[in-house]
Amino acid sequence: MTPVSKVLKLCLHALFLGLLALAAGRAVADSAPRAGWVVAVCALLAAVYAAGVRAPAVHSSPRAGAVWLAGLGAAWAALLLVSPDGLWIAFPLYFLELHLLRLRWGVAAVAVTACAAIGGFLAHSSAATPGAFLGPLLGGAVAVATVLGYQALYRESERRRELIEELITTRAELAAAERSAGILAERERLAREIHDTLAQGLSSIQLLLRAAERALPEGAPALPHIAQAREAAQDNLAEARRFVRALTPPDLEHGSLAAALERLCAGVPGPRVRFSLSGRPRVLPTPYEVALLRIAQSALANVVRHARAGRAEITLTFMDASVTLDIVDDGHGFDPSSAATGQGSGSGDGGFGLPAMRSRAESLGGLFTVESAPGQGTAVAVTLPLPLEHLERTDPVEAL
């Protein structure tokens, strides 16, 4: 319960009990003929009111609240019979009825209460005045408008609170995702640098040392330094391989690229995503597997966030000299020439999705294409040519 609602409830209690005290006090002060009955009925009404306020069922069960209001109304009707001042109790009753009953029934109860108040006043007054009718009716209208306005403000406040909580949660998730992405990006960069520089250099040293041994005159004794250098290069090459394997993204640690893509499709929320494999699978260099996996993750993220697609499909195709990844969805599409945006989005990812995917593909000498149109879905295709040493299988670090 908010502080504002607590204050409003306290004000309502004070208004109800204050009006009862006023009715009883005026009856005693004016020595009314039924002063004793007025005091007794006011005490009964106060007791019924207090019992309902303290009963948890009245606030949690609409049926219990309706029963309490019926008892309160009956006691109030008795007060109307013995005192014209009972008319003023109608105003706090309006708010109670609108608070405890559904809006439709609450408005009907307010109308009945207003009619009863008018009838009670006319029963004690010899002359009918416009105020006798306008007072209860205007009071009921003001009560209905006040409650409806408060409920609208409360709903708006709740929506704002939920939006703020969602924003805080999203910011925390985004910060965690950025930290994780930064760590993974650095791991990938280190693995790529080790593969492209250190491991390739050690491989070249081995090849040169082997060529040096073959260049020795026939029958000449083997040079121990060359054998030791080859052994040292081999040991360091194995160590470089271990570094690259340790820096491999977690998604690729426990299986092939095809298995990682299949797990990715199975875990996508929202659209149904199907994975298919074509051609004869082969082990790809780690930078190729990382690039294809990251492109698939980015494209599917755009499908989930922006495309409003019902289905999507990822196809990994192995050919003799290249490997191709296709991501197709049936979302609302976009105009690729109008803006550099995420898949299936006109402005969804702030312009970083497609350029990042294109950069990954082109860094490996690949081709990145996007085909889309509004209302016709989106197709993203990546083709990476396999390196010559990988095709010929002569590179000692091809498993890296």
Task: List the topology elements.
Elements: H1 3-29, H2 35-54, H3 56-60, H4 62-82, H5 90-100, H6 103-124, H7 130-215, H8 224-246, H9 257-266, E1 272-278, H10 286-307, E2 311-318, E3 322-329, H11 353-363, E4 367-372, E5 378-385, H12 388-392
Parallel strand pairs: 1-2
Antiparallel strand pairs: 2-3, 3-5, 4-5
Transmembrane segments: 35-53, 65-83, 103-124, 131-153
Organism: Streptomyces amritsarensis
Protein name: Oxygen sensor histidine kinase NreB
Please tell me about this protein's structure.
The chain is an alpha+beta fold. Among the domains are: 3-128, no CATH class; 254-400, Histidine kinase-like ATPase, C-terminal domain (Heat Shock Protein 90). The chain is built from twelve helices and five strands. It has helices spanning 3-29, 35-54, 56-60, 62-82, 90-100, 103-124, 130-215, 224-246, 257-266, 286-307, 353-363, 388-392, and strands at 272-278, 311-318, 322-329, 367-372, 378-385. Strands 1-2-3-5-4 form a five-stranded mixed beta sheet, covered by helices on one side. A hairpin with a 3-residue loop joins β2 (311-318) and β3. α4 packs parallel to α6 (103-124), α5 (90-100) packs antiparallel against α6 (103-124) and α6 packs antiparallel against α7 (130-215). It is rod-shaped. Mean pLDDT is 80; it is low at 341-351 and 392-400. One of its GO terms (molecular function) is kinase activity. Keywords: 4Fe-4S, Cytoplasm, Iron, Iron-sulfur, Kinase, Membrane, Metal-binding, Signal, Transferase, Transmembrane, Transmembrane helix, Two-component regulatory system. Residues 1-29 form the signal peptide.
